[in-house]
Amino acid sequence: MKNTIKMNRAWTMASRPVGEPKPDNFKLVEFEIPTVQHGEVLLRTLFLSLDPYMRGRMRSGPSYATPLEPGDIMQGEVVARVEYSKTKRFSVGDIVRSSIGWQEWGVIPAHLAKPVDLSLGPISTAVGILGMPGLTAYFGLLEICHPKAGDTLVVSAASGAVGAIVGQIGKINGCFVIGVAGSNDKCRYVTDELGFDAAINYKTEDVSSRFKELTSSGIDVYFDNVGGPVLDAVMENLADSSRIAICGQVSQYNAVGIAQGPRNMGALLIARATVQGFLVYDFERRHEIARRRLAGWMRDGRLKYKEDIVDGFEHAPTAFAGLLRGDNFGKLIVRVSELD
Amino acid sequence: MKNTIKMNRAWTMASRPVGEPKPDNFKLVEFEIPTVQHGEVLLRTLFLSLDPYMRGRMRSGPSYATPLEPGDIMQGEVVARVEYSKTKRFSVGDIVRSSIGWQEWGVIPAHLAKPVDLSLGPISTAVGILGMPGLTAYFGLLEICHPKAGDTLVVSAASGAVGAIVGQIGKINGCFVIGVAGSNDKCRYVTDELGFDAAINYKTEDVSSRFKELTSSGIDVYFDNVGGPVLDAVMENLADSSRIAICGQVSQYNAVGIAQGPRNMGALLIARATVQGFLVYDFERRHEIARRRLAGWMRDGRLKYKEDIVDGFEHAPTAFAGLLRGDNFGKLIVRVSELD
Hints:
Order of helices and strands of chain A: EEEHEEEEHEHEHEHEHEEHEHEHE
CATH architecture of the largest domain in chain A: Alpha-Beta Complex
CATH topology of the largest domain in chain A: Quinone Oxidoreductase, Chain A, domain 1
Radius of gyration of chain A: 20 Å
CATH superfamily of the largest domain in chain A: Medium-chain alcohol dehydrogenases, catalytic domain
Number of domains of chain A: 2
Largest sheet of chain A: 7 strands, mixed
Oligomer: homodimer
Distance between the termini of chain A: 15 Å
Largest interface: A-B, 36 and 36 residues
Shape of chain A: globular
Structural class of chain A: alpha/beta
Number of helices of chain A: 9
């Protein structure tokens, strides 16, 4: 690194949001990039991934990860270019993925950066279909839901980063796939572009009635990204021995306190159904295998993806708030800098 | 059979209950016992089992079994004596279990009666610890919850027909067992008589706080007989990779419409927990094996049971309403007639 670049910018959590995250819950801070020490690399962020789970990190209280404290840099995955290296593991110009958070630059120990195999897909896919969202879809569907050919599979947030992949892997596995999404455009996209068998606009249609119309013997598999009323509608339409994977509950993330809903656990008894929560990190040993399979399906044209790219690091908070409302269409990514 | 006994009595559902079952939801009817045909047996009910699931049968709408219609005989299991037989399978005096419902007498095809092995336990246990409740505890705990030595196991309705057996099988498997029950007497019973490690009176104690006091790393297994607020408290205290078996939701059975509760499915995600509904009938092929194991533990003094026996067929509806309120203490059984 020439000593010309000195300053880094990062988005911190200024305060915990109450309800929807507002601009003043975030603060853009500037500080000097620390000197790169032995064994470290300097990364320049190309793409920052924005994902609903980040809202959970802004909340206090126990979860599967330590919550952010005010003043902490927002967490998140990036794909970045190595700009300076004091390790033999990486050379300048290497493309890596890392969890440096919402930052333009990062100085980290080399083992916290993972090389990106550029032969598998475009760079941005390293935080999308070949990154955490793609792996979440892969393991959540295949390992938690055990889909079989002929099963009716429902996925919510169907055009989103995870949902779109879930539905397509469902099709590859021979399922009848119903997507639930929040606009007619999104519904058309998953049926016409991604090959889902049907789609339901939860904002304008009666989801439970539509399930009844579309399925003769109920829902065998539900990949739940949203929770709330869509999950309720699924619970009213469970097939015997059905499986529900709890991947996200985005309809609840901005809730103040715990929202109330129907007590419908009896439906699980009637259907002998299973609901299981999971985290993609639990399957870490097999991430590379999954990535190669996903890339193979992409090459074969069986797996498509759509990215919603926001240009400019300064727009990250607004884009993130929109993500929680479902404003995005496809995997939401912030382009922080250009490769060249 | 001498032709001296002519009349049968049966409890029918007169009307669907709204909320708690009331006396006028039931009607005692008298009718002639039909002639025993070739291949049939005449049964005299000794003990009638009363179980919470029967409330579900009184409800309309889809479930795992066809609902009763007004005028139908209440469903249920009995242990009975064969009083007349037109089949080689049974002789007069044989003791059998069958699902003839709330009746003093029953004429049924022989294949619908199952011989009771009297060497395994007293006659009444054929509808209790060695009947449907015992098998429910056995399969629900062992096959759905996969308890391991060292696990913290919570069971609700802990002194009841199923709960008391679940907790004791948990102890046999090396678990730390916490019972949740509705009175101090019931709590003392499960700890002092059944050997549970702790008990919580959900009517007088803050269940979630007590779980926190009693467990260092949360609840590994919850065998849910009740649903509602006790389930909510469990969801606040899940250990990683915990398993919840939905066996019953008795707190909800008298609910008018669907009660509301917290939307807490996110807790499953955080803990990577599993919730599964099940029915004892799904394990039918192994019922006899389970019965022998349960009887073995009884002989060894490791498995105790308590029966709450109501004398007199005419009291069945009142006893049943009490069961749904938790008035019973131990397995609720109606003694319909004496053996001799």
